[in-house]
Design goal:
The protein has six helices and 13 strands. By secondary structure, it is of the alpha+beta class. A hairpin with a 5-residue loop joins strand 3 and strand 4 (about 95-105).
Length: about 300
C-alpha cells in the first residue's frame, strides 16, 4: 500500500464528523508506570516482567477497574534516578489522591498493588494533576502522528506535569489528552488547541470544544454536561452535578444541578439525549474489521422545576 492510500482513523473520523462528547471511558483510578524502553502494542500486558509481581498488579488494578498506562517523558527524555510509578484516584466528591513510588527491580512494582489494596486509600491530596498524552504509535499510527506534537508542545509548557502514555481509548480522536485524577478526556487536539485546553483546565475552566467527557459519568451524562458547557460557556470541573438520569428506549433524560453558578443563569437543568448506533466503519488504523458505535445527540435543554 502506498503512502497516499494509507488509512488514518483520525482523518476518517474528522471527515465523518464523529461526535466527541460521550466517548470518555468510565473509570476513577489510574495506574501509571514509567517505562523507558519500547512500548509493546498492548502496553503493560506485553511487558516481560517478573510474573508473580505482574499478576498481582494486574489483579489489584482489575479489582477496582483501574486503567494501567505506561508513561514516559516526551522524546523518551531520560531522567536521573529510578523510574516512577503512581496510583491516581478520583472520588465522587471531587477529592483526589495520588500515591507515587519508584522502581528499579520488577518486584518494586508490588508497591502499586499495596496502594490499590489499602483500605484507607493512601496518597497526597494536594498534588497538581497529571496530564497524559496518548502517543502509543505501535498501538495506532494516529496516536503517534498526532499525539507526539501535542506531547512536545505541552511538555515545553508544563514539563513537570506532562507525560506521554500508552493507549487511552478512542484512537480516532487523536490527539487525546487525559487529565488525571480529575478524570477529564480531551480529543481532536493539535499542539495549539492542546495548550489552550490544558491552560484553561488548570484554571478550572472546562470548555465544550475538544471535550470527550468526564470519566465518572456515563455517556449520556457526559453529553448532557457538554451541552450545558456549549450553551452557557466554560465552567469548573464540578460546576455541574448529575442529580438524576432516566432512560426510555433510546432516549435519556439527565437532570443536572449547577453547584457554583458562574456562567449558567439557572441552578437546575434537564437535558434530553437520544442515542443511535452508527453504521459499521473502520475505527482504528490497524483494525481491519468494521465496527459500529453508539452516538448521542442532544434533543433539548430545559430549565428544570425545583
Amino acid at each position: 500500500m502506498n503512502a497516499a492510500a494509507r488509512f488514518f482513523c483520525a482523518d476518517a473520523a474528522r471527515l465523518r464528523d464523529d461526535p466527541l462528547a460521550g466517548t470518555a471511558p468510565y473509570g476513577s483510578t489510574w495506574v501509571l508506570i514509567e517505562y523507558r524502553g519500547g512500548w509493546p502494542p498492548n502496553g503493560f500486558d506485553g511487558l516481560s516482567l517478573e510474573p508473580v509481581t505482574k499478576q498481582r498488579v494486574f489483579t489489584a488494578a482489575h479489582a477496582v477497574r483501574a486503567r494501567i498506562l505506561l508513561i514516559r517523558r516526551h522524546g523518551r527524555r531520560t531522567t536521573a534516578g529510578p523510574a516512577r510509578w503512581a496510583v491516581l484516584r478520583h472520588r465522587e466528591d471531587g477529592a483526589h489522591r495520588q500515591t507515587w513510588g519508584t522502581w528499579q527491580r520488577d518486584e518494586d512494582l508490588a508497591g502499586i498493588a499495596d496502594a490499590l489494596e489499602a483500605v484507607d486509600a493512601p496518597g497526597e491530596e494536594a498534588a497538581p494533576p497529571v496530564v497524559l498524552v496518548c502517543a502509543h504509535g505501535l498501538h495506532d499510527a494516529c496516536c503517534a502522528v498526532r499525539g507526539r506534537p501535542v506531547g512536545r508542545a505541552l511538555s515545553e509548557r508544563w514539563p513537570d506535569l506532562v507525560w506521554e502514555c500508552t493507549h487511552v481509548g478512542g484512537d480516532r480522536f487523536a490527539a487525546n489528552v487525559v487529565v488525571a485524577p480529575d478524570g477529564v478526556y480531551y480529543g481532536n487536539l493539535d499542539a495549539a488547541s492542546a495548550v489552550t485546553a490544558v491552560e484553561e483546565h488548570l484554571a478550572d475552566r472546562v470548555h465544550a470544544d475538544h471535550l470527550r467527557g468526564y470519566t465518572n459519568l456515563f455517556p449520556a451524562q457526559q453529553v448532557a454536561v457538554a451541552a450545558l458547557l456549549r450553551r452557557y460557556g466554560p465552567a469548573g470541573r464540578y460546576h455541574y452535578d448529575v442529580e438524576e438520569t432516566s432512560r426510555d428506549g433510546d432516549r435519556w433524560r439527565v437532570r443536572l444541578t449547577s453547584r457554583t453558578p458562574r456562567s449558567s443563569p439557572y441552578d437546575r437543568y434537564e437535558v434530553e439525549v437520544r442515542s443511535h448506533r452508527t453504521p459499521p466503519r473502520q475505527l482504528t488504523c490497524r483494525g481491519l474489521s468494521m465496527s459500529s458505535t453508539v452516538a448521542y445527540e442532544v434533543l433539548s435543554i430545559a430549565v428544570a422545576p425545583h
